[in-house]
Design goal:
The chain is an alpha+beta fold and 457 residues long. The chain folds into 3 domains: 3-110 and 169-180 and 393-449, Rossmann fold (3-Layer(aba) Sandwich), CATH 3.40.50; 121-163, no CATH class; 214-391, no CATH class. 37% of the residues lie in helices and 22% in strands. The protein is built from 12 helices and 19 strands. A 6-stranded antiparallel β-sheet has the order 2-1-4-5-6-7. It has a 5-stranded parallel β-sheet with strand order 11-17-18-3-19, sandwiched between helices. A 3-stranded antiparallel β-sheet has the order 8-9-10. Strand 6 and strand 7 form a beta hairpin. Helix 6 runs parallel beside helix 8. The protein is elongated, with a radius of gyration of 27 Å.
Length: 457
């Protein structure tokens, strides 16, 4: 299920925006000046899908609506009320669903700190790691910043286990579970940290593979180094699958050779075998150049006469090699796009990938360059492309905030074509927030211009 339309009313008490998402190139661009709510809308989309409420509590608006392809909708309404006895403003959030006929039903109310007894807050606090500590009905860190209950639960989802069931957030659990979103935020050069603050295990979805469990990258100083470690883990997963296929095909080779002859199957012609072997060697060399395979010695220098003597065995052999190398197809395609784009952009240096060490940048003088020594623009380009290629979920909604940050105008002008190519590969779709006309270029058909109210003059 995909998102068809997004709208917000009364944003900051000023703006009413509507963003339709249907177009064949999978990209919708929100174009508008600073302060018109582009970033906030992206965060609201992510929060609704992920089931967090803090942004809806703290951001002034009256209604936010996300409509799906089946014409059902998820609606959040916000109201600020003041109790006479306390004179303290209180935010009420109402969550509704709407069916294709427009009939609405209330789903749940968000839990607010003043609804919870101190004993429950203390239970939540017992599951919140330092430096956050409970002060009154909220939390503070060592620098004195304050956090609401919703903000704490957003950072540490496991702490919600301390809440009585009636208070637990349940944003649209009936219909939004199949929606997936990935947010490429503006602060993208610093290393990501696990929300729990601990080393964890996560599931990685990669093309033809089933769910693969890999270690989360450990503490590093920058996002590019983190993704350098991440690509090593992904390559190891593919190599493990390759080894499994190789072991199985080698083990079964004698049996399959006997069965091939016994069943009277026809072997490939000698010229067909030689042609397929040449294609496989070309594919193998491509995988070696991408850092996915070591240099291997194949069957080279064979003539048609050589092949004719062993047609049956070699027919099975080329089929085995094809199947084994196909394991790399998805990963090779993604790495190939990454390296092709980066090496087209970078000047006087080239990006390579090492199976054990990850990203390797080499100058034209053959000197290694540390990842942290890349320019801000080069790091932004590498991080954004990696996130789009390897982290965005298949068939998911990708939210990209200000892709123009730190990029030369020449790179900005090519971002959109790169994005469209990647979205086709990952079968995803995207909303891009920008105020750069260079990003849009000639594709004004993809842009939705955010406007403010008409001021009478």
């Amino acid at each position: 299920m995909r998102v068809k339309n997004i709208s917000v009313k009364g944003l900051f008490g000023v703006f009413d925006h509507e963003i339709p998402l249907q177009n064949p190139d999978r990209v919708t661009i929100m174009l508008g000046p600073n302060g018109f709510g582009k970033t906030v809308m992206l965060r609201m989309i992510a929060a609704l899908v992920e089931g967090t409420t803090s942004i809806f509590e703290r951001t002034p608006f009256t209604e936010f609506c996300l409509t799906l392809e089946d014409e059902t909708a998820r609606i959040i309404r916000r109201e600020v009320v003041v109790k006479a006895e306390s004179r303290k403003p209180r935010v009420n959030l109402e969550f509704l669903t709407s069916d294709a006929s427009g009939n609405t039903a209330t789903m749940s109310q968000s839990p607010l700190p003043d609804q919870l007894p101190p004993s429950v807050l203390a239970e939540v606090d017992s599951l919140v790691p330092g430096p956050f500590h409970l002060v009154g009905r909220g939390w503070e860190d060592n620098e004195g910043r304050t956090y609401s209950l919703s903000e704490i639960l957003e950072r540490f989802p496991g702490a919600a286990n301390a809440l009585p069931r009636k208070y637990r957030p349940k944003l649209f659990s009936d219909g939004a579970d199949d929606l997936q979103v990935f947010f490429v935020e503006t602060n993208r050069l610093g290393a990501e940290s696990s929300r729990s603050g601990h080393r964890s295990v996560r599931e990685v979805m990669m093309g033809r593979h089933e769910r693969i469990m890999v270690d989360e990258p450990g503490p590093v100083s920058s996002r590019v180094k983190q993704y350098s470690e991440d690509v090593v883990q992904r390559i190891r997963s593919v190599l493990a699958d390759y080894a499994k296929h190789s072991q199985e095909s080698d083990r079964m080779f004698p049996e399959r050779l006997v069965r091939f002859a016994r069943d009277g199957r026809s072997a490939l012609e000698a010229h067909e075998i030689l042609s397929q072997m040449a294609e496989l060697e070309s594919k193998r060399q491509r995988l070696i150049s991408l850092g996915l395979l070591d240099t291997e010695t194949g069957l080279r220098g064979l003539t048609e006469e050589d092949v004719t003597r062993e047609q049956e065995a070699l027919t099975i052999y080329v089929g085995d090699v094809q199947e084994k190398l196909n394991v790399f197809d998805d990963m090779a395609h993604r790495i190939g796009i990454l390296m092709d784009i980066i090496n087209d952009r970078f000047k006087y240096k080239r990006l390579g990938i090492d199976r054990e060490r990850g990203f390797r940048v080499i100058s034209d003088l053959k000197e290694p360059i540390q990842l942290e020594d890349l320019s801000s623009g080069e790091q932004h380009e590498l991080v954004v492309l990696y996130e789009l290629l390897f982290r965005a979920p298949k068939n998911g909604l990708v939210l990209v905030d200000e892709p123009e940050i730190s990029l030369h105008v020449a790179w900005q002008s090519r971002f959109l074509s790169d994005l469209i190519k990647i979205l086709k590969l990952t079968d995803s779709y995207a909303i891009v927030a920008t105020h750069s006309p260079v990003i849009i270029g000639t594709r004004e058909d993809l842009a939705v211009k955010l406007k403010g109210p008409v001021v009478a003059g």
